[in-house]
Amino acid sequence: MRDGYKVKICGTTNIEDAQLAAKEGADYFGVVVEVGFSKRALTVEEAEKLFKNPPVPAVALVFHMSEERLHYLIENLKPFAVQFLSQEDLGLIKRFKNAYPDLQLWQSVHLPGNGSEVDMEKVKALVNSYIEAGIDVLLFDTVATVQGTQKFGGTGVTSDW
Known about the structure:
Elements: E1 8-9, H1 15-23, E2 28-32, H2 44-51, E3 58-62, H3 67-77, E4 81-84, H4 90-99, E5 104-111, H5 120-133, E6 137-146, E7 149-152
Parallel strand pairs: 1-2, 2-3, 3-4, 4-5, 5-6
Antiparallel strand pairs: 6-7
Helix pairs in contact: 2-3
């Protein structure tokens, strides 16, 4: 383990890339599942092969997925963790933590792009509410506008945090 941090390679779409991520030392690999704005998104059915005998723990990344579909994803893929890219309802987080106590729930916390001021009190309150709801891991990411479209993560843009 590295000193206090772990590495997740996201946007994995095939077994070879998952194996490469593991070989190069990643702690996890992430699969974007049914996220309409991502060109790397797979359906639950397409993602199944990546979650069977993964070389390192596999994380399913979702954005505003319905509860019914999220149950289907968890039951079929059996991921190590589900990462919410969208700000999810705290009640949903509590329900899924109770329904799947061994499943890790991760939450992305979106920060504004460099040059924009971060309201740290608001971020702290949000973080605390997620922790109280049952989130296991928080990931801080930057929202950026790329070619006129707002992107959530994977942009290479840093926040002035």
